[in-house]
Amino acid sequence: MQAAAGGAGGAVVFSRLAGEILDILRARPGEYVSGEEIARQMSVTRTAIWKHIRELREFGYGISAGGKLGYRLDSIPDRLYPAEIQAGLTTQFIGRAGIHYYREVGSTNEIARELGEQGAPAGTVVVAEAQVQGRGRLRRSWWSPPEKGIWMSVLLRPGLPPGEVFLLSFATAVAVARAIGSLLPLEVRIKWPNDILVGGKKVAGILLEIKAELDQVHYVVAGIGLNANQEEVDFPSELRSRATSLRQAFGRPVSRVHLAREILTSLEEEYLSLGHGGRERLWQEWRQFDVTIGRQVEVVTGTEVYAGLATGITPEGKLVLKLPGGEVAEFAAGDVTLAGVRGNPAT
Ligand code: BT5
């Protein structure tokens, strides 16, 4: 748990002692643990324990006080608190160096970028309950309502040459798709370059931002926006036909903490695998999720629109399109609309 520098509103997180009490109570689920025992383990007074129990309650934890019996953890709030994400997190470095938590922030990518400039270690994570200036590619905005999604950025310092950093954006998309699929019985798809779809609608997006010189990458910020618990009516009307949430697809609310932890875990796996030359593995995985290749698509790049058959992805991540005249075009960036996706509305 960390305090973070800079950023709208500053990081909000409970104290280290409150975190220690939480760990003790969490280790004894359903049981009362006496104030005396907690005080002894932590070498603090029972009054201090009481004070921090009150603090935890203010952060939304349900803790019963049973007089002489002590304290019992009854419920955990649905918040992306670092202590919750880190409990049971088995990664080597992502989320280990620090998770910076905000109730509200402009953009988690912006905070992660500031941290990158300040020399924060690889694996630093920024997470917010809400973003007021969440962003997509090309300065588009990303709708990030409070406590409904996962708005999270991971600072990475890859040893890849700048020309290969694009691979990380595909790796992040695969990591998010895998994480969703491993926790929920949903068919997750990726639309080039990295829209994550469920039921033909966008459930998550990835924004990779890079600070590099010609021959050296300083850092990369992998931004992940995942709609978790919005209901259909929550969506702004302009997004309703194109966007969805896991809750909508699954039919029940989902645990954002479990998802965040799973995403960090699979992101680290993909990242480490890439570092060990696992490009072929990445493309194989990506293809398993891909919904673009073999479809008639429209690619919008700036003001141009191209229609054609998506025939493949180059090793540089470019989309290959066979145009009606038979020519072949390659796209390094753009927005794809799928024509005639079976059973799904076109996205
Ligand atoms: C993306 O851009 O899909 C990248 C989104 C990345 C968001 C994360 S949240 C954490 C981190 N901090 C940030 O500030 N950003 C990252 P793009 O492919 O350009 O898609 C943007 C378009 O998706 C918008 O123009 C809308 O049409 C649509 N959109 C906006 N909010 C959405 C949402 N919550 N769910 C689905 N679609 C959305």
Trace the largest sheet across and list its strands: 3-4-5-9-8-7-6
Cofactors and ligands present? biotinyl-5-AMP
Number of strands: 14
Q: Which runs of at least 5 residues are low in confidence (pLDDT < 50)?
A: 1-9, 341-347
Q: What's the average pLDDT?
A: 93
From the N-terminal CA to the C-terminal CA, the straight-line distance is: 39 Å
Largest sheet: 7 strands, mixed
Short description:
The chain is an alpha+beta fold and 347 residues long. The protein contains 10 helices and 14 strands.
Report on the structure:
This protein has helices at 16-26, 35-42, 46-58, 82-86, 108-117, 166-183, 237-240, 246-250, 256-275, 279-289, and strands at 62-65, 71-75, 99-105, 125-131, 149-156, 188-191, 195-198, 201-213, 216-227, 296-301, 304-313, 319-322, 328-331, 335-338. The protein is α+β, with helices and mostly antiparallel strands and 347 residues long. Strands 3-4-5-9-8-7-6 form a seven-stranded mixed beta sheet, sandwiched between helices. Strand 12 (319-322) and strand 13 form a beta hairpin. Helix 1 crosses helix 3, helix 2 crosses helix 3 and helix 6 (166-183) packs across helix 9. Residues 1-9 and 341-347 have low confidence and may be disordered. It binds biotinyl-5-AMP.
